[in-house]
Design brief:
This protein has a single domain, classed as P-loop containing nucleotide triphosphate hydrolases (Rossmann fold, 3-Layer(aba) Sandwich), CATH 3.40.50. About 50% of the residues lie in helices and about 15% in strands. The protein contains nine helices and eight strands. About 40% of the residues are buried. It binds 2'-deoxycytidine-5'-monophosphate.
Length: about 240
């Protein structure tokens, strides 16, 4: 797309969205990417796919070398959502569609352990950086602004209280036909926050130059408008 005034090709920026589980990152990132006609990359889905590979092969998650080898040889692809994936990015591993299972409670339970393995992160971070090389991407995760796209033109750190995030997750799970009680989800979210922010390699952390957005008191529409506004001004810079 060209700039309306100068006719020069419009800059295609990199947008990094980080934050804890359930803050609304993926919905926000998808909407922003759609509006700008950018590629949306859900890095959490890649760690979930890696976890699925390890569990499917019955690997001992403490055997890091074995997990790393399995992830190195797995072909992990992300595809645009369709009706079968209920609006979420489709996850294909070695040709098999694992979109549904990677978002199940069992994968959620073990994903923090797999994503804490430095060798696994190295493989996936390289993949993510390759995908974002040309710009025109919105990427969400935990270490995008600090590590993967440290050079991103726009960095957002999206957060919300554990209670609000748990309510949203409960709604998502109900829509997917999965049943769980709110207290269990709050406990799971708090545990995952703790594991993700205290791990040694690339812990979840707000980048110094990221803009903090607390979504407790804002609707997703309001947050999307705000982030799109920020994108437009970065593109125009
Ligand atoms: O965003 P999500 O819940 O699908 O992410 C799943 C897990 O993957 C999360 O517990 C932390 C990990 N993760 C990570 O370590 N780094 C990323 N860039 C994205 C996710």
């Amino acid at each position: 797309m060209n700039d309306e005034q100068t006719g020069a090709p419009r800059k295609r920026i990199k947008v990094a969205i980080d934050g804890p589980a359930g803050a609304g990152k993926s919905t926000l990132a998808k909407r922003v990417a759609d509006k700008l006609n950018y590629l949306y990359i859900d890095t959490g889905a890649m760690y979930r796919a890696a976890t699925w590979v390890a569990l499917e092969q019955r690997a001992d998650l403490n055997d890091h070398n074995r997990v790393i080898e399995l992830v190195r040889h797995a072909i992990i692809e992300l595809k645009a959502p369709d009706e079968s994936s209920q609006g979420r990015v489709r996850v294909i591993v070695n040709g098999a569609d694992v979109s549904f299972i990677v978002r199940s409670r069992i994968i959620t339970k073990f994903v923090s352990a797999v994503s804490a393995i430095a060798g696994v992160r190295k493989i996936l971070v390289e993949k993510q950086q390759k995908l974002a090389k040309e710009g025109g991407v919105v990427m969400d995760g935990r270490d995008i602004g600090t590590v993967v796209l440290a050079d991103a033109e726009l960095k957002i750190f999206l957060t919300a209280s554990a209670e609000v995030r748990a309510e949203r997750r409960l709604k998502d799970m109900r829509e997917m036909g999965q049943m769980q009680d709110l207290q269990t989800i709050i406990a799971d979210i708090k545990e995952r926050d703790h594991l993700d922010s205290t791990r040694e390699t690339s812990p979840m952390k707000q980048a110094d130059d990221a803009i903090l957005i607390d979504t407790d008191n804002y609707s997703l529409d309001q947050v999307t408008d705000k982030v799109l506004e920020l994108c437009v001004s970065k593109i125009a810079e």
